[in-house]
């Protein structure tokens, strides 16, 4: 049953009490009181342990491993006998020092990151790195190359225009971001300080299966890997800098991971804000100011979980299997479902598709939600349907979605 709250009560939560105002300021008229209905949550307040009742296909913040959430739950109130939650303790205390150092150590093991690189846990999301990259890697009048394969690489390019002289060496905009070019057709600037690309475009579902090489031997390869970070092996040694928002595969929103070659952390532009300066962050081991402690703690639990699963190669195999099942269902639907992305570069993380009868898309999303498959609506900029099947999405979630897709098609001939 809906709870009824007088709107005057809601007003008092947002405005000073009338009684606190001078009498002359009060309205001489009788107050009009209406009622506002507050609907109850569509979800039950409790669910059985180990079964939250939905498959969450959100693009981010995204689903997290069940084992990680249960571990965090058990340590939320009292972290390992400290008498404090991670959210309460000093970021310079011995407990959190252990948390952040172990998180870094486990990430280094997962991706075979050598000591030639710093691993930083920063704030501001990957979007903040759109500015931090040029500020740290080049001067205001120096060129940089950008491959634009979707919305996020386009945003990165536009932000960099404030801090260097970037050049778009290839753009997929004219083809609605459905492909990635052959690297030999990319006309790089031989003087570019770095070559930037987005490893996986979350909105458009385009993923690099291999990585370009800067033609300038002194240039630096830079990647935004936010939505496929830790989903497959990557040779970090080929990069100068990798950055990734955590809220797709490795944690909650609030922390951004930066892996940057040590020799590149020394010569930021004079205008670089202190919080965007990699050297300051590295010199202070990501603790220049209070970091997103709880988000880093969750990332650490995820790294432990990935290692327990057999490491990144094993995770990649499971991700490929999930994606294959879903793409096979789309391609085998005789055109009822359509994925616009070129097959060779389809993302294993974000699967966008439309229905040939676009008027059915809203019904599809609503009926899927009733079957406890949620967050399937495509990004507001492109519409359609999008299933994000990150590391923590179980195979059963994809199988349930495919079964629903087939049933929905049968019911709408």
TrEMBL record:
Residues 54-401 form the Aminotransferase class V domain. InterPro entries: Aminotrans_V_dom, Aminotrans_V_PyrdxlP_BS, Pser_aminoTfrase, PyrdxlP-dep_Trfase, PyrdxlP-dep_Trfase_major, PyrdxlP-dep_Trfase_small. Gene3D superfamilies: Aspartate Aminotransferase, domain 1, Type I PLP-dependent aspartate aminotransferase-like (Major domain). Its cofactor is pyridoxal 5'-phosphate. HAMAP family: SerC_aminotrans_5 (MF_00160). Belongs to the class-V pyridoxal-phosphate-dependent aminotransferase family. SerC subfamily. This is Phosphoserine aminotransferase.
């Amino acid at each position: 049953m809906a709870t009824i709250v007088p709107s005057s009560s809601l007003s008092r939560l947002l405005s000073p009490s009338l009684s606190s105002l001078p009498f002359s300021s009060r309205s001489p008229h009788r107050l009009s009181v209406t009622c506002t209905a507050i609907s109850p949550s569509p979800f039950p307040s409790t669910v059985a342990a180990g079964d939250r009742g939905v498959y969450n296909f959100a693009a981010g913040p995204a689903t997290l491993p069940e084992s990680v959430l249960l571990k965090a739950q058990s340590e939320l109130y009292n972290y390992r006998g400290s008498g404090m939650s991670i959210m309460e303790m000093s970021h310079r205390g011995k407990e959190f020092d252990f948390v952040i150092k172990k998180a870094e150590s486990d990430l280094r093991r997962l991706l075979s990151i050598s000591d030639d690189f710093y691993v930083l846990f920063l704030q501001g999301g990957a979007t903040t790195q759109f500015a931090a990259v040029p500020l740290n890697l080049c001067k205001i009048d120096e060129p940089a190359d950008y491959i634009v394969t979707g919305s996020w690489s386009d945003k990165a390019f536009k932000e960099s225009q404030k801090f260097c002289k970037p050049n778009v060496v290839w753009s997929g905009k004219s083809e609605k971001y459905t492909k990635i070019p052959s690297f030999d057709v990319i006309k790089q600037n031989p003087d570019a300080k770095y070559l930037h690309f987005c490893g996986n475009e979350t909105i458009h579902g385009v993923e690099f299966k291999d990585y370009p090489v800067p033609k300038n031997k002194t240039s630096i390869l830079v990647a935004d890997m936010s939505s496929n970070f830790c989903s497959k092996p990557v040779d970090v040694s080929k990069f100068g800098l990798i950055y990734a928002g955590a809220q797709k595969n490795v944690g909650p929103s609030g922390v951004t991971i930066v892996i940057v070659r040590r020799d590149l952390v020394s010569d930021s532009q004079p205008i670089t804000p202190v919080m965007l300066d990699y050297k300051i962050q590295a010199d202070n081991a990501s603790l220049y100011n209070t970091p997103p402690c709880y988000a880093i703690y969750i990332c650490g639990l995820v790294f432990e979980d990935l290692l327990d699963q057999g490491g990144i190669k094993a995770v990649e195999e499971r991700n490929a299997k999930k994606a294959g099942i879903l793409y096979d269902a789309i391609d085998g639907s005789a055109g009822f479902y359509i994925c616009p992305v070129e097959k060779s570069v389809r993302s294993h993380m974000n699967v966008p598709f439309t229905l040939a009868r676009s008027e059915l898309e809203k019904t599809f999303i609503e009926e899927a939600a009733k079957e406890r498959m949620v967050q399937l609506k495509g990004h507001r900029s492109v519409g359609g349907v999008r299933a994000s099947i990150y590391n923590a999405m179980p195979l059963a979630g994809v199988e349930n979605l495919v079964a629903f897709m087939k049933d929905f098609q049968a019911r709408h001939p």
